[in-house]
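If your schedule permits, I should be very grateful for your opinion on a structural question. I would ask you to consider whether the tokens describe a fold that such a sequence might reasonably adopt. Thank you for your consideration; the sequence and its tokens are set out here.
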Amino acid sequence: MAATGTCDPTRVRVPVAVALRVLGLSRQGYYKWLADPVSQRDWDDAHLLHLIRAVNADDPTLGYRLITDELDDEHGIRVGENRVHRLCKAAGLTASHHKKRSKAGSTGPAPHDDLIAVEDEHGVIRHVFAATGPNQLWLWDISEHPTTWIPAIVATPTGGVEDGWSDLQRRTA
């Protein structure tokens, strides 16, 4: 038996057994899906999400916990907070006063206010890390970066570059 599809002569029809073996699916699961492509849980989630959207439209300040209470009190639907949270998250519904936090490990804003940005003759913004004298350009002080086992290339505030190998040779010589 070939896999279901249109009768287009340019389309390649693959036997069901081959397709399921390649996709790593069971024959039983495929035929169960073929008989009922929308599960009862998906059907219930769709109806619940419709009610959640209605509750959120009435009062957008409610978070998922209060939406759960509202569904129980107003609509008589007892549902868990985790399920409401999952559906709200999938639909992108949040309380209107919800503050989005940054991801863990994000650095935040740039450490400088782009004081070193220069626009060249082609309109491209480039960063110039060279200074003509002391105290004119400062990003952060990383000129002293002691390493014992790995050579490091360290940028100095005056725009020069120190090589960890030559620095190591100077210290040991």
Q: What stands out?
A: The longest helix spans residues 40-58. Residues 40-91 form one domain. The two ends are 80 Å apart (CA to CA).
